[in-house]
Design goal:
Elements: E1 2-7, E2 10-17, E3 20-27, H1 38-43, E4 46-51, H2 68-81, E5 87-92, H3 94-105, E6 110-116, H4 125-128, H5 130-134, H6 143-151, H7 162-169, E7 172-174, E8 180-182, H8 186-196, H9 201-206, E9 212-216, H10 232-241, E10 245-249, H11 260-277
C-alpha cells in the first residue's frame, strides 16, 4: 500500500505492508528508493514501512536539506504523524548510517536496530559505488533502454527478477517526450553523501544503545575480483564497536543481498533477532 505523509515541511512517500507488531521502519541507500525492500517486506511477518527519503522516489525533493539531522527529523516526524511511539528501525547502506544516527539521537523512539551492510566500509567505496552514481543526471530513450543499462551493470551478475525491476521502475521519471531520467539529482545526492561524511561514525556506533543486528554481504560488488563494499573483516570490526550487536552474514553483495533468496534469509535472521531481543 502507498501513502503520502506530511512531515517536517515536506511530503514523504511510504510503502506499507500489513503484519504483526512490532512495526519495522526501513530506510534505503544513498541513491535508492523504498521499493528496494519489496522482497524483504514480503518475507517479514511484521508490519513494515519503507520510506522514500527526501529527494528520492515519490517524496518531496527540496533544493537543500540533505544532512543526517534533516533525514533523522523526517523519520521522527513520520513516526509522530503515524502515532508510532517506538519502532524497529532499519536501513541499508546510507540508510544503515541514518539508522545509527537516529537511534543515538532519539533512543526512546527506537527499540532495536537493523543495520544492513553499513558501518566501516572498504577504503575504495566511492569507486565501488560509482556505477550506481553514474546513471544520475542522465536521460535514456525509454524505460526499456534504462532497464537494460542497469541490468548490464556487473554487480548484478545476471541476477534479475520482478522485485528488482519494480525497484528500478520506481527510480525513474518519464519526460514529456517519452524519455526517462533517474529521480535522484546529482546535487542532492552529493550533499547527502558529503554531509554524511562530516560525522564521527566510530563514536556514534560506540554510543548506539539499542540491540542491533548487523547484516553483511561480503561478496564482491562487481566483476570477479572486485572487493566487497563492506568486507567481512570490516563487518567484524563494526560489530565489535557497537555495544550490543549480532553479526549475520548474508549471501550476495551490497545490492543482491536485498533480493531473491537472500532477502528471505535476511528476513529469517531479523525474525530470530527480534524474537530473542524483545
Amino acid at each position: 500500500m502507498n501513502m503520502f505523509v506530511q512531515t517536517n515541511g515536506i511530503q514523504l512517500h511510504v510503502l506499507e505492508k500489513p503484519g504483526i507488531e512490532p512495526t519495522v521502519l526501513l530506510a534505503h541507500g544513498l541513491t535508492a528508493n523504498a521499493a528496494c525492500f519489496g522482497a524483504l517486506m514480503a518475507a517479514l511477518p511484521y508490519r513494515v514501512l519503507a520510506v522514500d527519503l527526501r529527494g528520492r522516489g515519490q517524496s518531496s525533493a527540496p533544493v537543500s536539506g540533505y544532512t543526517m539531522p534533516d533525514h533523522a527529523a523526517d523519520l521522527i516526524e513520520l513516526l509522530n504523524a503515524l502515532e508510532l511511539e517506538q519502532v524497529i528501525l532499519g536501513g541499508h547502506s546510507f540508510g544503515g548510517l541514518l539508522t545509527v544516527y537516529t537511534a543515538v539521537h532519539h533512543p526512546h523512539r527506537v527499540r532495536q536496530c537493523i543495520v544492513i551492510d553499513a558501518g566501516l566500509m572498504h577504503p575504495q567505496v566511492r569507486e565501488l559505488i560509482s556505477p550506481s552514481l553514474a546513471r544520475l543526471g542522465q536521460t535514456y530513450p525509454s524505460w526499456e533502454s534504462y532497464r537494460d543499462a542497469v541490468k548490464a551493470v556487473p554487480y548484478w551478475g545476471g541476477q534479475w527478477d520482478d522485485a528488482i525491476e519494480a525497484y528500478y521502475r520506481a527510480d525513474i521519471r518519464e519526460l514529456a517526450d517519452g524519455r526517462v531520467t533517474p529521480i535522484p539529482q546529482p546535487a542532492t545526492i552529493a550533499e547527502a553523501a558529503g554531509k554524511g561524511l562530516e560525522h564521527n561514525w566510530l563514536e556514534l556506533m560506540a554510543r548506539l544503545p539499542q540491540p542491533t543486528l548487523l547484516l553483511n554481504a561480503p561478496a564482491g560488488y562487481g566483476a570477479p575480483g572486485t572487493p566487497a563494499v563492506m568486507p567481512a573483516n570490516l563487518a567484524e570490526e563494526t560489530a565489535a564497536i557497537i555495544p550490543h550487536c549480532r553479526l549475520i552474514t548474508i549471501p550476495g553483495n551490497h545490492i543482491t543481498m536485498l533480493f531473491g533468496d537472500n532477502a528471505r534469509l535476511m528476513a529469517q535472521a531479523i525474525v530470530e533477532f527480534v524474537g530473542e531481543t524483545e
